[in-house]
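> call design_seq(struct)
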């Protein structure tokens, strides 16, 4: 029996496969790989972080986001009530309830504590409705528009403004300021 070049290559490939896997159960190998996957909400702590203890429980804070331990990893959470920071993260939103200003970032509400000159995490005010985070587009003529950036083409961008998709010539746009990320779900 004579095999051509391609036939010999196929046979050698099959032999190499059998030697490599040595009769192991392939579905067991697949289960081993699947078992090592991590959940998408589990993160490694950022290198630059601050340890925060509130009511005896340990949290970590980095650039406006709080984390708590979840087994061997960490999950992003809204800030724990009572946590304190000295400087608000860039991109926060001011929410007014009556005359009282609250500062909102990534699902966490803060109030300024004048005696300590710190921002304290508070429970969401009952009367407050979280403002929808909007992107801002600045134009060459000094005007701007706020809405949800939808994308664009090489000639224009699309922005949803008050429920209507608007199109703007790209040569008019000077800058696009994207809203902060959506808050994580409550734990």
């Amino acid at each position: 029996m004579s095999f051509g070049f391609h036939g010999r290559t196929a046979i050698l490939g099959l032999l190499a496969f059998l030697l490599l896997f040595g009769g192991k159960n392939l579905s067991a190998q697949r289960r081993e790989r699947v078992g090592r996957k991590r959940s998408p909400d589990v993160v490694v702590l950022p290198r630059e972080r601050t340890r925060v203890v509130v009511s005896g429980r340990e949290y970590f804070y980095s650039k406006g986001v709080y984390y708590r331990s979840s087994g061997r990893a960490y999950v992003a959470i809204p800030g724990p009530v009572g946590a304190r920071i000295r400087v608000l993260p860039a991109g926060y939103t001011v929410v007014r309830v009556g005359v009282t200003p609250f500062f909102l970032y990534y699902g966490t509400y803060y109030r300024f504590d004048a005696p300590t000159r710190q921002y304290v995490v508070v429970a969401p005010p009952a009367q407050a409705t979280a403002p929808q985070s909007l992107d801002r587009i600045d134009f060459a003529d000094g005007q701007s528009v706020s809405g949800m950036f939808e994308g664009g083409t090489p000639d224009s961008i699309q922005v949803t403004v008050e429920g209507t998709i608007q199109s703007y010539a790209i040569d008019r746009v000077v800058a696009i300021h994207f809203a902060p990320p959506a808050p994580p779900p409550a734990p």
